[in-house]
Amino acid sequence: LIVTAVSDGTFNAHALAAQQGAFAMLESIDSIAQTSMNQARIAAAVIFFTVGFVALLIGALLAWGISEPVSRLSTDIQQMDEYNGILPEFIIPASRGFAIKDVAEAQRAFRKLLSGIRAFSIFIPEEVVTRIIYGDPRSVRPHVDTRNVTIMFTGIRGIMQMSLNEEQMLSVITRFHKMMTSIVEQYEGTVGEILDEGLLVYFNAPRMVSNHATKACEAGLAQRQAMNTLRQELVDDGWLDPSDGFLRLGVGIHSGSVLVGCIGSAMKMKFGCIGDAMNLTSRLQGLCKFYDVDVMCSEETCLATSALVCRKLDLLQVKGRQETTAVYEIIGQDTVVTMTGTEATQATQATSASGMAGPMTTGSSSPNSEPDQEVQAQTIGNGALTLPIPKSNARKKGPPQFLPPEEERSDAPLLL
To answer: CA 318, CA 320: separation in Å to the nearest integer?
Structure first.
């Protein structure tokens, strides 16, 4: 029997080595797993933030693509809701690739509608367009109302005698219409129609205008001044000789009761006036050439005005009417000043020499007036014409009247 003594651990050395190797391998695997997990976390965070950023960017683009056209559409709708006869020129937006199709189409369609309304208001009175927009049922069917209206016909005289080509002729007429329309609107008139070389204007229709007769006459005086400006511009352009008598203004004004409203049928309608006043006003405008005046009005308009100086021209009788009508030239605005008798005499002599007006039927100052005697006088325009009125003669109601200059009139009215 042989007994051998060996040291402790001799037989489990291999097991211990294997155990240590296993522990080392586990540590390596754990390290690799931690590294992989950290990388996965970083990748997940990057992916999350990237996706979030892209989502925010897309959301912002979508919000801008919706809000920007919706905001413009809201502005357009607000302008439409606050429509007062004036709309700006609208630009139809171009189609954009990232815009919301339905919203962009709605905005473009509404812009087209507003552009159409703006163009529509150029051809008919703005007040009529406003009534149509706000749903007035009478504005889309034939109807008339009786109203006292001051009517104005204004036009160019002698333009066809000018040596102008087509473009120059159109330019002159366009400039004339622009100046006259601007003046009419300043005095609360409404342009009813464009009459080739003139305008048909209503005061107190379709909108109510206080003191419309006076405003119409003041508009006529302003148009006379504007025509002088236009003549000077054409002279400067070399289109008109200063000595030529072409391009004169002719304005006829009359106040009377007419039928005002939409005239026509359900197929075609227009805004206008019906009555004898329309015919008489047209005749007055045509008589401007006969009497060689720029602005003339009827007695009805003359008596309804204030602070204006008028000169009586004649008595007229329109065919089909029994009563006669006195017609007047509107000379200027009435400004009362004080002057001495000598100044009044000089003014009377200057007035007689000018040939613009004859002696005043309500009385005039005597050439033998005392130098220190004070009289009232009318200063017309910018002081170019001064007509003396004695203090002893109280002013009567209505404008002063003047006899026709250098023309012999019979008591019989002129038949038109």
So the answer is: 6
Decide if 274 contacts 309 (C-beta within 8 A).
no
Q: 54 CB contacts (<8 Å, ≥6 apart)?
A: none
256, 284 contact by CB (below 8 A): no
For the chain, give the secondary structure using H, E and C: CCCCCCCCCCCCHHHHHHHHHHHHHHHHHHHHHHHHHHHHHHHHHHHHHHHHHHHHHHHHHHHHHHHHHHHHHHHHHHHHHCCCCCCCCCCCCCCCCCCCHHHHHHHHHHHHHHHHHHHHHHHCCHHHHHHHHCCCHHHHCCEEEEEEEEEEEEEEECHHHCCCCHHHHHHHHHHHHHHHHHHHHHCCCEEEEECCCEEEEEECCCCCCCCHHHHHHHHHHHHHHHHHHHHHHHHHHCCCCCCCCCCEEEEEEEEEEEEEEEEECCCCEEEEEECHHHHHHHHHHHHHHHHCCCEEEEHHHHHHCCCEEEEEEEEEECCCCCCCEEEEEEEEECEEEEEEHHHHHHHHHHHHHHCCCCCECCCCCCCCCCCCCEEEEEEECCCCEEEEECCCCCCCCCCCCECCCCCCCCCCCEEC
Q: Tell me how far apart the alpha carbons of residues 254 and 203 are, in angstroms, rounded to a whole number.
A: 10
Give the bridge partners for 269, in sequence order.
264
Least reliable range by pLDDT among 9-13, 58-62, 130-134, 354-358: 354-358
pLDDT digits (tens, 9 = 90+) for 213-243: 999 999 999 999 999 999 999 999 988 888 8
Look up residue 404 and give its two tokens.
Answer: 């026709």
Nearest to 272 by CA among 335, 202, 357: 202
pLDDT band with cut points at 50, 70 and 90 for residue 295: very high
CA–CA dist 390, 369 (Å, integer): 10
Phi then psi for residue 247, to 5 deg, are: 60, 65
Token match 């992989």: residue? 36
Other Cβ atoms closer than 10 A to 352: 14
pTM over the 0.90 mark: no
- Please state the length of the chain: 416
177: phi > 0 → left, psi -120 to 50 → alpha, else beta; which? alpha
Give the pLDDT band of residue 89 (cuts 50, 70, 90).
low
